[in-house]
Amino acid sequence: GSVVASYPYDDSPTHRLTGVYSKSADDEVFKYLAKAYASHHPIMRTGKPNCPEEEAETFPDGITNGAQWYDVEGGMQDYNYVWANCFEITLELSCCKYPPTSELPKEWENNRESLLAFIEKV
């Protein structure tokens, strides 16, 4: 996991493992939506999630193009965009896939304003 808002495409024509910006026709809209969420999140907006074993990983403005981060062939985000015209972003909300119950109130506080800002864009 990480703390970042990712947007299409997750797959790239070259299928390189990482580092290929795979721009969609609606790239600016996706960046706008991702920034709407990330800019209200106290950790995500810094672009520095500081996840264990990935301390050096950074995301400008707390967002990333999926394929630039890592290539995912056949992911739902791309499928829904291409085949259903569904504009979705992927939100990585924690370095830990299954945070302990004691951490959930803090996670809610970290994400509440981001969720409201994102819903307002809809």
Automatic annotation (TrEMBL):
One of its GO terms (cellular component) is extracellular space. The active site is at 92 (proton donor/acceptor). Signal peptide: none annotated. GO terms for biological process: peptide metabolic process; protein processing. Residues 1-122 form the Peptidase M14 domain. One of its GO terms (molecular function) is zinc ion binding. Keywords: Carboxypeptidase, Hydrolase, Protease. Belongs to the peptidase M14 family. This is CBPD Carboxypeptidase. The gene is Cpd_1.
